[in-house]
Specification:
By secondary structure, this protein is α+β, with helices and mostly antiparallel strands. It has three helices and two strands, in the order αααββ.
């Protein structure tokens, strides 16, 4: 659960309203981290487990010299923050890239050679 999700659920389930900072401090002191470990629920289906095991077993026969690993990544120009912090009574002045908000995708292949 994210901190925002915790903040939404605490009042209804526990009857308490707390600040984001308090939840963050609690999570930090307990050494909890936010990890992504979810997997497709189809992996748990019995009819697919045999296919997955066969695929894993067949990987031992793959020749690393012939493999090409393909990766895709992206970036977008609208990630500039539109707010920030300034001293009380002072105006925040920060330049933000003025552009058409677009996304660029990069695809690459990696081989052993």
């Amino acid at each position: 659960m994210t901190i925002s999700e915790l903040l939404e659920r605490l009042p209804g389930e526990r009857g308490v309203k707390v600040s984001r900072a308090l939840v963050w401090t609690f999570i930090d002191r307990w050494g909890l981290t936010f990890l992504k470990d979810a997997h497709a629920s189809e992996q748990d289906r019995e009819d697919l487990k045999a296919n997955r095991e066969a695929w894993f077993d067949s990987q031992l026969d793959l020749d690393p010299e012939r493999l090409v690993f393909i990766d895709e990544t992206w970036m977008t120009t609208n990630l500039a923050r539109k707010s920030g912090r300034a001293f009380r009574g002072e105006r925040l002045r920060a330049g933000v890239h003025n552009s058409h908000w677009k996304t660029a995708t990069f695809v690459a292949g990696l081989r052993l050679t």
